[in-house]
Each structure stands twice: as structure tokens, then as C-alpha cells.
Design brief:
ATP binding; 8 helices; HATPase_dom; Beta-Lactamase; Heat Shock Protein 90
Amino acid sequence: MSHRPDSSLSLALAVVASSDSPLLLLDGELRVIAVSTSFLRAFGIDRDRAVGQPVTALGDGEWAVPQLTSLLTATLSGAVIESYEMDLRPPGGARALVLHAQTLDYGDVDNPRLLLSVSDVTEARLTAQHDADSLKHKDNQLREKAILLREVQHRVANSLQIIASVLLQSARKVQSDETRAYLKDAHNRVMSIATVQQQLATTSLEAVMLRPYLIQLCQSLAASMIRDPHQLSVSVTCDDSVVDANVSVSLGLIVTELVINALKHGFPGHRHGKILVDYESEGEAWTLSVRDNGVGMPKDAEASKPGLGTSIVEALANQLCAGVRVTDAHPGTAIAIICSGLTPLDAAPRPEPTTQAL
């Protein structure tokens, strides 16, 4: 090893010794020619006990790692080794290292030189692991909260259904036709909220796919309000829209109000018919419509006065920055909730005669 360094090697020795990064300059026998002060300080090694020693003899023997010897030998043979990860286990505790090895070309093939840079990534690995553990803990907490929230939603829906049943029983017992009508309307309102709540409990808490949501909602409404499915039916057409859970609640309540209204007023005398719920969107704009082929809008002005359902639908539409448009479908009635995606669309003037009260 008693080679007089030429000017290039002298420069390399000076650069290594003064480097702020942990560096080792090795010869062809993997002995240390030069070592940076930062390496000595980082790994608690004496310079006098490093220079001239095999790299595997550094420290208390913790550098005698077979993978390290194989890495350096392969580099001397011409392999390019970058970002090789290795665990070092000194007495003070394990450390995670990233190694980069490369040969230096001096034009002297008989005396190869190898530069080894060492990066200690122990803290970064611990931080990453801590972040991963924290993220996993947060995910577990969110999952638990989601389960609890769904359970609450189910219980709220069940409670609302019980209240609706009590209202219906009360309606059957009272003598006053007016009071009976009010109780039945209250029953329908509670059932509509219960149905939406029940369907929401089975969907995602953040994003809701509208097609299965509306299909399940209308199936529930039909099962609870249509005695003969051969007489009346409710069908849904919907694109692949996905909306926020809060938006789905408003849309679900609107659909529930309009479907209940159509079932209540559109098919008197056990008429046969169909109700179609349709939703389509384009960008930020969307249209929700409920159309039936029933008797259509009433002819007398008294029956056409807006009811509670009308106020509910219009209020929900306003929350969604949408307008309500009512038309005579010939036969039946078509009600559309239209959002332009830019500004709230003013409800179009109702034609004469207007729709039946919801």
C-alpha cells in the first residue's frame, strides 16, 4: 500500500478529509486510505484506528457485514451500486444506512480506488414509521367512527319508523277527517325521512353513487306504499354521478316527497300507472326529474294551491342552488329540479292549471 499519491489522488484525499458528508476512500483491498471527519464523528471512530485498516475492521466490528463486502467487491469489478440500504448494529443501537459506492478513475488499473459515501437515515425511517403508525391509528379511528355513525343512522331510522307507525295508528282512531288527513300527512313526512336515513346508512359517508342509492330508495318507497306492484311501479334511470353525502340526503328527500305525492294524487280509483325518476348531469349542471302518467294536474284552483310538500321541495332545491319546474306531461305530471351549475335557476312560472299540492 506504499504508493506515492499523484496530484489527483492528493486532491481526492484532501476532498475526502474535509467533506461534510461521511466518506471513505478505499483501495483495491478495501482498506481505508482516507476518511472524512464527518464519518468519524457520525460513527464514533478514531482516525488513527481507521486509516490503513480494512473497512470491515472499523469500530467494534459492526462494519464486518458480508453484504457490505459483496457490495464493494462488486463495485471494484465494474458494477454500479446506488442507494444500497444496510443495517448497522453498533453497541449503541441499530442504525439504517444508505450506501453509494463508485470507483475513481486515475488511469492506474493496478491501484483502483473506491469512494464510499454513507448516509444515516435512521431518524428518517423512524419518522416515516411513526407517520405510518399515526396514519394507521387515524384510519382505525375513522373506521370506528364510521361504524358508530352508521349504527346511529340505523337507530334513528328505526325510531322514525316507530313514530310513523304511531302516527298512522292514531290516524285510524280519530273521528275527524281533517285530523286524520293531517296525521297521515305527518306519517308520510316521517316515513320519507326514515327511508332516506335508512338508505344513507348503507352508503359511503363521504361520496354516494346516486344510481344504487336512488334505486334502493325508490324500491323502499314502493314496498311501503304500493299494495299491488302490477298496478303501480316506480323506476329509476340515472347516470354514473357521484355526489357528496349531504347532497344525496337533499336529493333523496326531494325524490321521496315527489314520489309520495305522485302515489297519493296521481292515481285515484286504483288506476294503473308508472312513475319514472331520472337524474342526469353534465359537469356541474344536473337535472333531477320525477314524472308520472297519472291524472295530471288538478283543474280547480283550490286543489292546485301549494302544499307542505311543495314548500319542502322548493326549500331543498334552494339549498342545492336549483330551481323547480312543473309541467303537464299529457298524461300525468313532470316535475324537474334543475341546477345550471353556475347560479340558482329561478323556478319557471307554473302553467295554468298548476300542479297538485304536494
